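Ligand-bound model needed. 2-phosphoglycolic acid.
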Amino acid sequence: MARKYLIAGNWKLNNGGLKGVELAAAVVQASKEVAGLVEVVVSPPFTALAAVSAELEGSHVEVAGQNLYPKDSGAFTGEISAPMLDESGAKWVIIGHSERRQYFGETDEQVGAKVAAATAAGIKPIACVGETLAEREAGNTMTVVFRQLESIVPELNKKPGFGVIAYEPVWAIGTGKVATNEQAQEVHAAIREQLKKTSAELAEVTRILYGGSVKADNAAGLLACADIDGALVGGAALDAAGFAQIAKAAKASGHDN
Ligand code: PGA
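Prediction:
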């Protein structure tokens, strides 16, 4: 079964107002030729979600939140729920990004609860996993990634193919040190094998994105790998033309996803 490429831009703490709307409009223009062939997603800060969603209405580009709180409503000052993401026009949400795990103490258990809340509300989760440099050097990459997957996979299995996984080695995020194609493919293949233990269908339909210093000039090689089904792009997503180049590289990739 074919897995459609997904190229998602993670804007992080940037473009939370009018600039976000302008960037989103520029992404639509720059990536027109991949419409219908590659899924393209942008994730503005919460403050720009509704305005960006309105701007993108009817286009091929969809919107993601960068986080959510796993309760629908209530006394949780400063938090945003999955139904609120839905109201704002978001169809996706990034969950468990390493910056959330590192700076905000997000646990595997919370990540699992967030994936569950998103799925229940009809918001597609992009669940992030990945090892630090120290973990890789200690030979613990798979142990760490499999541990992070434990809370995510049962939730993804409630609706196989709905949510996606993003493998983002922490040492490659924002550092310019991209994983080699072989390093990335090795972990992606291992993640797919791990999914198979839950179900063959889940392994077959779940898209696994690579993230960490993906740019226009390294995207083609990564996206040509058999188990890499797209990219989660940070820094390079802040430039519409460069981001669109990554989506075009996905379109051009010959492999039989
Ligand atoms: P980067 O970020 O592309 O700037 O390395 C990726 C991410 O954090 O999702």
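Residues 196 and 245 are 32 Å apart (CA to CA).
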